């Protein structure tokens, strides 16, 4: 099994010394995210997130299936993650690393369990038919902050996705293709965003959005998922250095700020994308004119 | 015929010493027990609040097992003529009223052993052995019958908490026995083929293995779950509950399952199943006698077949030769007699287990 | 919510009759198994956990020199198993279950920072936990049981790691008329865990500093402070109980 290259002692000392002098390797302030970029694909439901050098693509797709027997009124929503060896030599297909397990658990808790997606709206006929929604997450480049980037990608992709419209008559459901009827957006109840804090110097120094090198030398981390309404969806601190309770509370307020910024950013990008798509609406598509 | 796991690393000299002391008459066991003596154990039953029945047993060598028995109501599969199957004529011919006939699939057993996967041969073999004894012993599965549409499904989950230091069969069997003894099912309130409805009062529940009259000395353990004993033979000696070291020199190992007989007249123990187990002693390397060792002035054999032939010819005391061949028939007979006879080992074990249950 | 909150507001008693800051009965034993280097048995109410520790010992060599963790440090392996009979319904949880993997990851990272790992280079310490009965606060019970078993095994640690759960009940004590938005509760059982937002936290030696904090349910940010405060207080008490168990064994 391949292993990630471990950071050298010199690098470790250098980064830690820098942090003690209030300097981050890339010159960012301690509580700043790297530059965030968000692009959408030609299809609905594809989001490409770049957080510094980390790059993650999420793709949402839907199909019609029978719902689970014990959840007749709910649709199905799954998030699957894949770490490709392209992102980091430590990743291997088909053998999930611990990091991958943790990432998918956190996304599951942050997005699925917190009820971000209204799964009841995915139901077509109770007990018979429902939409099965699937978010595939591909990590293309790994430079730290995977959880944060992945969460942004999935949330953006869900907001961007349009599901086909359906009409129900008794037992029959008609599913209209995109050309027949305008597809409809998903009903999303809130937008959880993850913010990872890394601790150094026995909990004395706290960084937001550490990159890979910083992640390798950190002593502990806490992942806080919040939405912009000030609700905490999930907190995960799996050990590491012990931190004062007040410092953790402080984290939540920093996280709230970041979450508000990021949510606003996603919203802006979505609007820009919508504007770009909506050149002439259906009319433009129906016109016989061809671009020659 | 699953091989006994966990090879002990003993030298040919040690094996030979063990073998010869065990084949003495009476045999001298490394821990000073008599041939029919079991290892001391600590046992408690009914320890889990969430299970129908449970037990925990610790052997003195540190191995520990926990068994939980859980029963769930399950819909029966519709069968054409459920009452008149020719396969189960034994007991329900005379009573026409309520004789529910159980199926083998109503009892499910799983064994977890640390360091083994669920589909490794050891857990699979052990659970097959214990299940077959459980199903063979009388009417357990028939008692799981509720009505024509529903039945209890009995899950027996066996956890070995410690690493399998010795062959875990006796430990697991004793623990399962105790757990089943303590298992209770809630009392049925509904009638006939209605959807089953049960009494909330746990006090009203009935044990799966009902305790019949305690007055008579022997009937106390009548109709009890089976126990599986591990027996090994060295020479003419029959040794019960062998430890790991003793197993390493066994010439034959057998697992014998038995339960108390149901007929009131002969209060003997009934044999349910026997399995031979491949002893690990077959895999040990043989000792080299001085005659065949060039370092001690002997003549080393030219080829391996030659070595085999020469060693076959002499039977030197004090040189370890791995056993070959099977078990002699009269030995099997003697073992069975020791187990099953009145006042035999099985009776002793069942009585001892009954006491644990009474005290707890 | 099906949880009968009305009686709580009236009598300030929970479903099982406890007050808001009351722990369930904690019963623990150490050295329960002779074969293991360290072992413990822990009950928190109806949650029952058995833990055994092996090591520090030479690790199983699984391929390219991964036996000894990082260079000059011991490797900590944690295995958690849910017994089929532990829940209300009989269910077998496979080895690949993500929730179990997450719990094992939590334990191994939490204890790695507590055990003096540098004393045992190229060795492995393995913790095996069997959950025999589930009734809430399972992660907390696992952490407490592992602490006891590690103490029993004589593995050097800086201090105890103790854990408990805390929740925030929506029932505002209207009678008191205080401006509190929520009532915190300590040490949840399975029913309360299903109804209320809760968090599991572990502190080192029952102090103020938090090592593990896991929360899986959505809750207003203002309520977290109260939950943390109650949880830290609870951990202090758990520490005293566990300490009593260890000292009682030594007598």
TrEMBL record, chain A:
* Location within or outside the cell: Cytoplasm; Nucleus, Nucleolus
Q: Name one Pfam family in it.
A: RNase_PH_C
Cite the CDD domains for this sequence. Answer: RNase_PH_RRP45 (cd11368)
Q: Which InterPro entries match?
A: ExoRNase_PH_dom1, ExoRNase_PH_dom2, ExoRNase_PH_dom2_sf, Exosome_comp_Rrp42_subfam, PNPase/RNase_PH_dom_sf, Ribosomal_Su5_D2-typ_SF, Rrp45
Q: Which GO terms describe its cellular component?
A: cytoplasmic exosome (RNase complex); nuclear exosome (RNase complex); nucleolus
The record ties this protein, via SUPFAM superfamilies, to: Ribonuclease PH domain 2-like, Ribosomal protein S5 domain 2-like
Which intervals hold domain Exoribonuclease phosphorolytic? 33-164, 192-257
Keywords carried by this UniProt record: Cytoplasm, Exosome, Nucleus, RNA-binding, rRNA processing
- What's the chief localization of this chain? cytoplasm
A molecular function annotated in GO for this UniProt entry is: mRNA 3'-UTR AU-rich region binding
GO annotation (BP), single: TRAMP-dependent tRNA surveillance pathway
Instruction: Indicate the family of this protein.
Output: Belongs to the RNase PH family.
Q: What name does the UniProt record give this protein?
A: Exosome complex component RRP45
- Supply the source organism for this entry: Lophium mytilinum
From TrEMBL, chain B:
Q: Which Pfam families match?
A: RNase_PH (PF01138)
Query: PANTHER family per the record?
Result: EXOSOME COMPLEX COMPONENT RRP42, EXOSOME COMPLEX EXONUCLEASE RIBOSOMAL RNA PROCESSING PROTEIN
For this protein, the record's Gene3D superfamilies field holds: GHMP Kinase, N-terminal domain
Q: Can you give the residue ranges of the Exoribonuclease phosphorolytic domain?
A: 37-186
Q: Per the record, which residues fall in region Disordered?
A: 77-103
Among the GO molecular function terms of this UniProt record, one is: mRNA 3'-UTR AU-rich region binding
Q: Which SUPFAM superfamilies match?
A: Ribosomal protein S5 domain 2-like (SSF54211)
Picking any one GO biological process from the record gives:
rRNA catabolic process
| Location relative to the cell | Cytoplasm; Nucleus, Nucleolus
Tell me its family.
Belongs to the RNase PH family.
Q: Which InterPro entries match?
A: ExoRNase_PH_dom1, Exosome_comp_Rrp42_subfam, PNPase/RNase_PH_dom_sf, Ribosomal_Su5_D2-typ_SF
Lineage top rank: taxon: Eukaryota
Task: Name the source organism.
Answer: Lophium mytilinum
Give the UniProt keywords, A-Z.
Cytoplasm, Exosome
Q: Name one GO cellular component term.
A: nucleolus
Q: What is this protein called?
A: Ribosomal RNA-processing protein 42
Q: Compositional bias of type Acidic residues: which residue ranges?
A: 88-100
UniProtKB/TrEMBL annotation, chain C:
What is the name of this protein? Ribosomal RNA-processing protein 41
- Which biological process annotations from GO are given for this protein? nuclear mRNA surveillance; poly(A)-dependent snoRNA 3'-end processing; rRNA catabolic process; U4 snRNA 3'-end processing
- Which family, according to the similarity comment? Belongs to the RNase PH family.
Q: Which GO terms describe its cellular component?
A: cytoplasmic exosome (RNase complex); nuclear exosome (RNase complex); nucleolus; ribosome
Q: Which locations, inside or outside the cell, does it occupy?
A: Cytoplasm; Nucleus, Nucleolus
**Entry's Gene3D superfamilies?**
GHMP Kinase, N-terminal domain (3.30.230.70)
Entry keyword set = Cytoplasm, Exosome, Ribonucleoprotein, Ribosomal protein
Which superkingdom?
Eukaryota
Q: Indicate the segments forming the Exoribonuclease phosphorolytic domain, all copies.
A: 22-156, 182-233
Q: Which organism is it from?
A: Lophium mytilinum
């Amino acid at each position: 099994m391949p292993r990630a290259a471990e950071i050298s002692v010199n690098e470790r000392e250098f980064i830690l010394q820098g942090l003690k002098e209030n300097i981050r390797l890339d010159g960012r302030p301690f509580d700043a995210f790297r530059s965030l970029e968000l692009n959408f694909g030609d299809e609905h439901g594809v989001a490409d997130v770049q957080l510094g050098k980390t790059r993650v693509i999420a793709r949402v797709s839907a199909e019609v299936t029978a719902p689970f027997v014990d959840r007749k009124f709910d649709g199905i929503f799954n998030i699957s993650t894949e770490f490709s060896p392209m992102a980091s030599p430590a990743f291997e297909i088909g053998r999930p690393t611990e990091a991958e397990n943790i990432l998918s658990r956190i996304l599951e808790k942050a997005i699925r369990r917190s009820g971000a997606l209204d799964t009841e709206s995915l139901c077509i006929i109770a007990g018979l038919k429902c939409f099965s929604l699937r978010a595939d997450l591909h990590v293309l480049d790994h430079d730290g902050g995977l959880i944060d980037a992945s969460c942004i990608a999935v949330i953006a992709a869900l907001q961007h996705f349009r599901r086909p419209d359906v009409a129900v008559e008794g037992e029959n459901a008609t599913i209209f293709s995109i050309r027949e009827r305008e597809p409809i957006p998903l009903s999303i109840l809130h937008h959880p965003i993850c913010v990872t804090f890394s601790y150094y110097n026995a909990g004395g120094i706290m960084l937001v959005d550490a990159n890979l090198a910083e992640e390798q030398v950190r002593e502990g981390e806490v992942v806080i998922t919040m939405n912009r309404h000030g609700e905490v969806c999930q907190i995960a601190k799996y050990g590491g250095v012990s931190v004062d309770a007040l410092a953790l509370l402080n984290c939540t307020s920093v996280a709230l700020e970041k979450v508000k910024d990021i949510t606003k950013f996603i919203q802006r990008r979505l609007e820009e994308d919508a504007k770009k798509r909506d050149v002439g609406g259906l009319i433009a598509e129906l016109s016989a004119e061809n671009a020659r | 015929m699953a091989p006994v796991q966990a090879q002990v690393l003993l030298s040919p000299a040690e094996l030979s010493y063990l073998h010869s002391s065990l084949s003495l008459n009476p045999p001298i066991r490394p821990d000073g027990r008599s041939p029919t003596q079991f290892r001391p154990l600590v046992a408690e039953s009914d320890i889990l609040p969430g299970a129908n029945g449970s037990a925990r047993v610790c052997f003195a060598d540190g191995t520990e097992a926990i068994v939980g028995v859980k029963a769930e109501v399950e819909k029966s599969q519709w069968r054409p003529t459920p009452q008149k199957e020719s396969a189960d004529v034994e007991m329900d011919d005379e009573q026409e009223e309520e004789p529910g006939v159980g199926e083998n699939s109503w009892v499910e057993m799983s064994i977890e052993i640390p360091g083994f996967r669920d589909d490794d041969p050891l857990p699979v073999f052990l659970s097959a052995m214990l299940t077959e004894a459980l199903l063979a012993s009388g009417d357990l599965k028939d008692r799981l019958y509720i009505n024509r549409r529903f039945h209890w499904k009995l899950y027996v989950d066996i956890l070995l908490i410690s690493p399998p230091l010795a062959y875990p069969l006796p430990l697991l069997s004793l623990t399962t026995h105790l757990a089943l003894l303590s298992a209770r099912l809630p009392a049925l309130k509904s009638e006939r083929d209605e959807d089953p409805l049960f009494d909330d009062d746990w006090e009203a529940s009935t044990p799966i293995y009902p305790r019949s009259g305690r007055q008579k000395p022997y009937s106390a353990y009548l109709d009890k779950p089976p126990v599986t004993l591990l027996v090994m033979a060295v020479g003419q000696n029959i040794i019960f509950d062998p430890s790991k070291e003793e197993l390493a020199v066994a010439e034959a190992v057998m697992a014998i399952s038995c339960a108390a007989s149901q007929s009131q007249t002969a209060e003997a123990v009934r044999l349910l199943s026997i399995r031979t187990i491949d002893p690990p002693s077959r895999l040990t390397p043989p000792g080299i006698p001085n005659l065949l060792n060039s370092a001690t002035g002997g003549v080393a054999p030219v080829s391996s077949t030659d070595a085999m032939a020469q060693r076959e010819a002499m039977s030197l005391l004090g040189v370890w030769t791995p056993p070959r061949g099977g078990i002699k028939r009269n030995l099997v007979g003697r073992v069975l007699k020791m187990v099953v006879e009145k006042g035999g080992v099985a009776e002793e074990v069942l009585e001892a287990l009954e006491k644990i249950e009474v005290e707890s | 919510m099906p949880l009968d909150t009305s009686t709580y507001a009236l009598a300030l008693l929970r479903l099982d009759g406890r007050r808001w800051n009351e722990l369930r009965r904690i019963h623990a034993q150490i050295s329960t198994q002779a074969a293991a280097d360290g072992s413990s048995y822990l009950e928190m109410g109806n949650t029952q956990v058995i833990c055994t520790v092996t090591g520090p010992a030479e690790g199983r060599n699984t391929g390219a020199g991964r036996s000894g963790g990082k260079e000059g440090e011991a490797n900590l392996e944690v295995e958690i198993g849910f017994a089929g009979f532990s829940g209300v319904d009989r269910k077998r949880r496979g080895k690949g279950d993500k929730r179990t993997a997450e719990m094992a990851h939590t334990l191994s990272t939490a204890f790695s920072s507590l055990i003096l790992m540098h004393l045992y280079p190229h060795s492995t310490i393995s913790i095996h936990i069997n959950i025999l009965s589930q009734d809430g606060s399972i992660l907390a019970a696992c952490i407490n049981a592992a602490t006891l078993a590690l103490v029993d095994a004589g593995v050097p640690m800086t201090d105890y790691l103790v854990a408990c759960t805390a929740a925030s009940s929506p029932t505002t004590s209207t009678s008191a008329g205080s401006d509190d938005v929520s009532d915190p509760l300590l040490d949840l059982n399975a029913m309360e865990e299903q109804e209320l937002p809760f968090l599991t936290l572990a502190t080192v030696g029952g102090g103020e500093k938090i090592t593990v904090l896991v929360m899986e349910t959505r809750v207003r940010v203002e309520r977290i402070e109260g939950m943390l405060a109650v949880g830290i207080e609870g951990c202090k008490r758990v520490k005293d109980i566990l300490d009593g168990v260890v000292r009682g064994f030594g007598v």
